[in-house]
Design a protein that fits this description.
heterodimer; A: alpha/beta; 7-stranded mixed sheet; 4-stranded mixed sheet; 12% strand; elongated; B: alpha/beta; 3 domains; 5-stranded parallel sheet; two-stranded parallel sheet; 13 helices; 13% strand
Chain lengths: 634, 373
């Protein structure tokens, strides 16, 4: 088997069994469980960055996949997924309750917008095509799950008889036949070299066809049991539609009287900067003033600004679970008895060489002498560092880190002396503020040692998870390199584990590769912004007194200025939107510091690795919209 | 050998670091799976990776092995079955079909592009197509794939896998043609001769040394036709018939040589030669394919050092006026391997194998099957 870490996209898993083996149930719980009573009776819009797992979940929710899961429920790894699906209402008592299908909007739907017809005809064609293909997909799911069509009946909503008759609800075979006819008629229009003239459009293509208004339920009778399945359609990759089509789709599906469940999955690209930045309502809803968004739409974001600490922990758990499942799919690791990625990644703290340590000590002695700090104070600083090292759970506070911490504290001490104290060269003066030796100093020491001596900084499973910026695909892209290296070592009959030095080097290399391979819209401008922010962050991080502790990885703009950004500087807003949409930047809004509110542009995991920035949060450089806007080009 | 063992052995033969091994393993897995394992000489148990190990270990130092490995990665040109199929498709769609279309259009006195809208266009095309006889110059002509490319058009009775046909076979071919066309006097209007590759053009047409006699496959074809015509005492071909010699692949050097020799032969042999002879190619390698001292100096040093003179056939060497095969036949100096065999115009280090007991034992990466044993 090839390396599954390279196969993040679910489309690459050919059969449902291998797909299910790679699925972790944690995102289902994280994103859907809390909304389980608002998922099936109204429009649901799920948005996230590429690789955040939207399509994976859409594929999992399909009826055929759920039936495959239930057929193998005795497998331990499947039961966890089953319980997660139950928690979000997809299953009740181990029985599916929804007939779910996924319709990818990446194919020919965009072309409907190019047709030379009036808008109402174009939208009707799109509407009919989507409904026809959805009906076909529902029936295909039923068949793929092993039911014969004779076992299934369509239960229409108690509504117009004419509407029901027009879609063929007498039997599933009729429904299939009618959907096929409509699909073929519209397909012939969209696939034609030249679309037919308006008056030559086939009648079936523009005749009323509204199965979404009519179908309420499918009843499946098998094994002397009748199960009722509520239809649910997931329109995936909706960002591929034209902006007007996207608006139409949203306003069409938001109607309350639709009896079916309907979800739209989209990247942030399809949203406006205001929506991405401020979580504003969908654009179509802004137009539809009659709609009360919170009541009529359930919006789920695969990323949120709220409770970032909890989200990071959740992602760490999910990423570990995912990597374990993937590792178990690789026989080469199985033969070595390795069942999770964490066991391959050594967590032992690195050490400076003797020569490097001597250089560091020399630096500290020179600084001590330069600032004329008394030996008594230096001993006190050393004592504080030693006490911290003894009391902390952080393993990476060896001799080298302690010396680097001492140096940071010496500089802080010097900064806290009044200028007159320095000129008088009094060595027993007290600093203006008491000295504190905490984790910030230790983290600052660690990252400074990386930049000054090349001491490994990025290693261990938690660092790997953090480098994924809460995005499964990015995590797998980074993990792939480590897994490949471990696999190579196994092939060569060597211990599979990777030292901290190896992990650090490979992760930084991979991070650089990812940054250099960005090709999304406005990527050059995003890269320029990140270059600017990173260089400022690096200067702040490497200040000898480490004023920001672990260092900086963010750029702060006053929140009030940022709120005006989409109107005041729409181009910069668009650039930032793409940066956020493609995991290059993360947005942290309403961050409180020194009594002010800030919006932080936090550098994503790949760029942090590339530029050598910390994953610790909170450290930021104060900046301005103006500084960013002069960095980008039109 | 299993894949892991092969990769491990390669890693130690090449003395790769783990990082380098990771990169190379990925490439080797990919390239062997998608291309090189398909080489026809490989068998289960001895495929590309095993062959590569043997090939690399013949070099003494790690620098030499590195040079050889770099050459393999950066310079080797391997034509896989998928690529060959495309070249054969090109032969049909870019050469045979347009040629027959033109003949049919001429017959109906319309422009070529109007043929298909003419009421009799399609029928005339089929009729003219049937009057073409296809001949393979070697196994590499892959007439089976050509038949697939021209499915529905090309009949078994108009394809022969060799050029030297005895009179009985000629009679048989003519009978089939006449039967199919209901024309007792039908004859072929075109002979379409096909081969896979020509690097120097020598085997097609040459006049070695000062000897006056022309040699090569085309001379043999002429003699065979002449003999059959005299034996059967009938004309096999229509008046003004044409001979089309098509290669799926050729070098620029071969193309120039053939065009030059075509003129020379026509001039010197006058009536004893084909009146309408054309050469065509599905694809031509430009001169940059050639391995030279400027581009690959270090690898050429290896070809000098690792050479066993016993692999040579004296007759072959004399015919192309060279004294060794280090840079391949006719000194074409090619880095080329075809999926079914390696041309002898490629560097000998790629394909030559010494007999047991040789002083310098050459081990092939892609063993060549010699046609002349």
């Amino acid at each position: 088997m090839s390396n599954p870490f390279k196969k993040r996209a679910t489309e690459f898993f050919v059969n449902d069994e291998s797909f299910l083996a790679a699925i972790t149930p944690l995102p289902i719980r994280a994103f859907f469980k809390d909304n389980c009573d608002r998922l099936y009776d109204r429009l649901v819009i799920v948005s996230g960055t590429p690789g955040s797992g939207k399509t994976t979940l859409a594929r999992l929710f399909q009826y055929r996949t759920i039936k495959t899961l239930l057929n193998h429920i005795d497998l331990e790894s499947y039961s966890d997924i089953e319980s997660a699906l139950s928690e979000c209402g997809m299953l009740v008592d181990h029985v599916p309750t929804k007939l779910t299908c996924r319709i990818s909007l990446t194919t020919d739907y965009r072309e409907f917008w190019e047709f030379p017809y009036p808008p109402e005809i174009r939208t009707r064609l799109l509407e009919s095509m989507l409904q026809a293909r959805t009906c076909l997909a529902w029936i295909q799911n039923i068949e793929a799950a092993g039911h014969s069509l004779q076992e299934v009946t369509v239960v229409p909503k108690n509504t117009s008889v004419a509407a029901a008759a027009s879609i063929g609800v007498e039997s599933v075979a009729d429904l299939y036949k009618k959907a096929s006819q409509v699909e073929l008629a519209i397909y012939n229009i969209s696939a034609a070299l030249l679309p037919p003239a308006l008056d030559q459009l086939p009648a079936i293509a523009i005749a009323p066809y509204r199965p979404f208004d009519v179908i309420e339920e499918f009843q499946v009778a098998s094994d002397n049991q009748v199960s009722n399945l509520n239809p649910l359609v997931i329109f995936d990759d909706a960002h591929e539609l034209h902006i007007t089509q996207f608006d139409f789709l949203t306003s069409w599906l938001v109607r309350r009287e639709l009896p079916i469940g309907r979800w739209i999955m989209t990247r942030y690209d399809a949203l406006s900067p205001e929506q991405v930045f401020q979580g504003a309502e969908s654009r179509a809803i802004e137009d539809l003033k009659r709609v009360q968004t919170k009541r009529d739409i359930t919006e789920i974001r695969f990323h949120s600004d709220d409770n970032r600490k909890a989200e990071r922990k959740r992602f760490q758990k999910m990423a570990r679970d995912m990597s374990t499942r993937y590792i178990r799919m690789m026989p080469v690791f199985e033969q070595r008895g390795i069942s999770d990625l964490a066991s391959v990644l050594q967590n032992d703290p690195p050490k400076l060489t003797k020569g490097q340590l001597a250089n560091l000590r020399d630096l500290v002695s020179k600084d001590h002498e330069k600032y004329g700090i008394s030996m008594q104070w230096r001993e006190q600083i050393q004592h504080k560092v030693q006490n911290y090292a003894k009391g902390t759970t952080d393993q990476d506070v060896g001799e080298d880190v302690q010396v680097a911490m001492e140096r940071i504290l010496l500089h802080r001490f010097a900064n806290r002396l009044r200028p007159s104290d320095l000129f008088s060269r009094r060595q027993d003066v007290e600093p203006s503020k008491p000295m504190k030796c905490d984790s910030g100093v230790a983290h600052g020491a660690q990252i400074q040692l990386m930049h000054r001596f090349g001491r490994p900084y990025y290693y261990g499973i938690n660092t790997l998870c953090d480098s994924g910026s809460n995005n499964p695909e990015l995590f797998l892209q980074l993990a792939e390199r480590l897994v490949e290296q471990a696999e190579t070592k196994i092939v060569r009959n060597r211990p599979a584990s990777l030292s901290s030095r190896e992990q650090h080097r490979l992760l930084r290399e991979r991070g650089s590769e990812i940054v250099n391979s960005w090709t999304f819209p406005e990527c050059d401008n995003v890269r320029a912004l990140i270059e600017l922010i990173s260089s400022l962050c690096r200067v702040a991080t490497l200040k000898e007194n480490a004023p920001l502790g672990a260092g900086a990885n963010s750029y702060g703009i006053p929140q009030s200025d940022f709120n005006e950004l989409p109107i005041e500087n729409p181009h910069l807003a668009r650039v930032l939107q793409f940066g956020i949409s493609y995991n290059a930047i993360q947005l942290v809004q309403n961050h409180k510091t020194k009594g002010d509110l800030w919006c932080l542009l936090e550098i994503g995991g790949a760029a942090s690795l590339h530029y050598g920035l910390p994953f610790y949060r909170g450290g930021f450089i104060e900046g301005s919209i103006h500084e960013l806007s002069v960095t980008i080009t039109r | 050998m299993n894949e892991a063992l092969c990769l491990r052995t390669l890693g130690s033969v090449m003395q790769w670091s783990n990082d380098r091994a990771r990169i190379e393993y990925e490439w080797l897995r990919l390239i062997s799976k998608f291309k090189y394992d398909g080489y026809r000489d490989f068998v289960a148990g001895v495929q590309f990776l095993e062959s590569l190990i043997t090939w690399l270990t013949q070099f003494e130092t790690s620098e030499e092995r590195q040079t050889a490995y770099d050459f393999l990665k950066d310079r080797l040109v391997y034509v896989s079955p998928a690529e060959l199929t495309k070249l054969i498709d090109l032969c049909y769609f870019e050469h045979i079909r347009p040629m027959v279309t033109q003949v049919a259009a001429n017959d109906l006195a319309v422009d070529r592009y109007r043929l298909w809208s003419h009421p009799n266009g399609s029928k005339r095309f089929d009729y003219c197509f049937r009057h073409v006889l296809f001949m393979g110059l070697s196994d590499g002509a892959r007439t089976d794939l050509l038949r697939y490319a021209a499915r529905g058009k090309l009949k078994n009775e108009q394809v022969v896998s060799f050029t030297q046909i005895d009179p009985d076979k000629w009679q048989d071919l003519l009978d089939c043609l006449r039967n199919d066309t209901n024309d007792r006097n039908a004859r072929f209007h075109c002979l379409f001769v096909i081969d896979d590759f020509t690097a120097s053009g020598t085997s097609i047409l040459r006049r070695p040394g000062l000897e006056k006699e022309w040699k090569g496959k085309l001379v043999r074809l002429w003699n065979s036709l002449d003999y059959a015509r005299r034996e059967l005492q009938i004309e096999l071909m229509q008046e003004n018939w044409s001979l089309r010699v098509h290669h799926y692949l050729a070098t620029q050097q071969a193309r120039c040589t053939l065009l030059k020799r075509k003129q020379q032969a026509a001039h010197e042999r006058e009536h004893n030669w084909f009146k309408n002879l054309e050469f065509s190619f599905s694809s031509i390698f430009d001169s940059s394919i050639k391995v030279t001292d400027q581009t690959d100096h270090r690898f050429l040093l290896l070809t000098e050092k690792h050479y066993d003179p016993n692999i040579e056939s004296k007759q072959h060497l004399e015919e192309c006026e060279i004294d060794n095969l280090k840079r391949g036949y006719a000194e074409c100096s090619l880095p080329l391997v075809l999926e079914h065999n390696t041309p002898n115009n490629s560097l000998a280090l790629l394909w030559a194998e010494s007999s047991k007991g040789a002083k310098i034992a050459m081990r092939p990466l892609f063993r060549r099957h010699q046609r002349h044993i």
